[in-house]
Amino acid sequence: MSLTPLADRLRPKDFSEFFGQEHLVGPNGVLRKLVEKDELVSIIFWGPPGCGKTTLARIIARKSQSHFVQFSAVSSGIDDVKKVVSQAKERKQLYNQRTILFIDEIHRFNKLQQDAFLPYVEDGTIVLIGSTTENPSFEVINPLLSRCRVFVMKALSEKDLDKIVERGIKELNLKIENDARSFLIEASNGDARNVLNILEIASKLVKDKIKLSDIEDAFQRKALMYDKAGEEHYNLISAVHKSMRGSDPDAAIYYVLRMLEAGEDPLYLARRMIRFASEDIGNADPEALRLAVAAFQACDMIGMPECQVILVQLAAYLAKAPKDNSAYMAESMAMRDVRDYGNLPVPLRFRNPVTKLMKEVGYGEGYKYPHDFEPEELKNEVYLPDKLKGKKYYFPKK
Question: What is the DSSP code (8-state) at residue 17?
């Protein structure tokens, strides 16, 4: 039995073995092209845990035949930086070999520590590759950030994780039941390391086949009945929506957390709440839409599990907000007329006379500039096409 963790045994050594991040390392990925053309630059990888930041740094070093040094921002100090720089200079002079300095969790380096290796990034003594789960705009000093190319990495898709699970079970020489496999993938939140660690723990509990109960034991949590593409998914999101519409924050929070616990994408929930803020609240509280958009951006920025509380806050706010579906109803009624009547002509007085001919045929004639009149003087002005005169769509609630 190997003492090396499964995640390390299966760590890809080449782009062809790497799953995910197609926009960076696929056949036309910008990072892959830079490496293959030996046009290395200093890099900062920004993405969620387990998406392949460390692995990509190692692949780059291997493909470019560079000396690889890994730092942890938690345990390394300025003296360590000076030592690496000294060795990098010597290696470059004696062997004409570049040094890649990989700093895990670079956001944990303070300003003084980041300043220490700035000159050596600038003069090419080292190629820096930093990884962070935090927005580098806030956590990395500007002089260093300006000398690095930031590559945004995404959480791995279920398809990517499924391929990783397949490699894992082959390495372990085991089988895994379909429901156990699905739960393992959904509950791992796009984290490849998490998938393999849990798979390895579960493998120690069985002889030849991993069952759902084994994955649950390894995770120390139960699989909730949930299928992102099935009925339960739609049942739960409907319950979230109706709880908020019914002004019940407790129910809304419960259903939101139940979906997240079952592995739902937090951005899916945030998008649905943005829609709700306009459809069911509208102008009764315009702040709701602004808060919903801000919540989506915040969830996208920090990911799970930290973003759970943001969605709880938003669900509570939307549930307690005053309700007005006038915009939604106006959309439905107006769209029906758009489709029923087709391309009704815009009244000539509202058309912009941008040429002499347009002006001669009556474009803009009779138009009254509202700021030149009292509201009472324009009360009979009709802006809709003549055939829809008198139509009303928007009925805001008091």
Answer: G
